[in-house]
Design brief:
This protein is of the alpha+beta class. The protein is built from seven helices and eight strands, in the order αααααββααββββββ. The chain has helices at residues 2-20, 47-62, 69-88, 107-117, 127-136, 156-165, 175-178; strands spanning 148-149, 153-154, 183-185, 195-199, 206-212, 217-221, 228-232, 242-247. The strands form two sheets. The chain has a six-stranded antiparallel sheet with strand order 3-8-4-5-6-7. Strands 1-2 form a two-stranded antiparallel sheet. The chain is elongated. The protein starts with a helix and ends with a strand.
Length: 251
């Protein structure tokens, strides 16, 4: 089996070389090589003429001269399969480092080069995380009663209203209206971008809200003098006043 594998490998290398670099026949035809016209191209050796002596040598060395026809047929099938694989295998592309050789590359080579050099775009984070990032960037802006713009500042519901508007999400203007938007979210399932609500702050009922970030923090417009801040949802003041959360962005 080892000898057969070696012979098939040699046959494969010979056929591939003959297909890529055709060699002229020896002077055995009606016209010797020296008598060929200068414009006459060399005649490539047929693959069978290259393979036949190798197979014959294997058979004689192996003592296979007495093998049955079925065994010989299987050997030829193996050789034929190796030849077909070699002839159908694409040639190696030229070096991709030399841009001056672009004209010498085929369309397939250029496509392969572009795929190798292209840098995949990193996946975009979920919309909730994008929304939370926009909200966090507003920290430090002033508090403004009724404000819904970075130019003027925000109140609590104005901040929530503005950030969602940047993603094409329309909400009610005040915290009580926003509380009935989207779907309810349990505190244990909070995700960045969720709206968190509080009650009994400056008035009874739902009176304050903000946008959850991560790690138990949320960003909100607190009050005049404090502005937009990032605070822990477990703060001694906010934790007992927490009443729920809503998710209005697409998951």
């Amino acid at each position: 089996m080892l000898e057969r594998a070696i012979m098939i490998y040699l046959a494969l290398a010979t056929v591939a070389t003959a297909a890529i670099f055709p060699l002229p026949l020896r002077a055995s035809g009606t016209m010797a090589r020296e008598q060929r016209l200068p414009s006459e191209p060399p005649t490539p050796a047929p693959p069978d003429q290259v393979i036949a002596p190798l197979v014959a040598a294997e058979l004689s060395d192996d003592g296979c001269a007495t093998c049955d026809e079925a065994a010989l047929g299987r050997l030829w099938v193996e050789v034929a399969g190796a030849m077909e694989s070699a002839l159908n295998r694409p040639l190696a592309s030229p070096s991709l480092a030399d841009d001056d050789d672009d004209e010498a590359l085929g369309a397939g080579d250029l496509v392969g080069r572009d795929l190798l050099l292209a840098k995949p775009n990193p996946p975009r984070p979920p919309k909730g995380e994008q929304l939370a990032d926009v909200a966090a960037e507003l920290a430090g802006l002033p508090y403004s009663w009724g404000g819904i713009s970075p130019a003027t500042g925000f109140d609590c519901s104005g901040l929530v209203y503005y950030v969602h508007g940047q993603f094409g999400i329309k909400l009610g203007r005040d915290a009580s209206a926003q509380y009935y938007s989207g779907q309810e979210v349990q505190k244990s399932d909070l995700r960045p971008g969720d709206i968190v609500f509080f009650s009994e702050t400056y008035t009874s009922g739902i009176s304050h809200n903000g946008i959850y970030l991560e790690g138990g923090r949320f960003v909100h417009a607190v009050q005049p003098g404090s502005g937009v801040k990032i605070t822990s949802i477990g703060d001694d003041y906010w934790d007992p006043r927490y009443v729920g959360a809503r998710r209005v962005f697409a998951a």
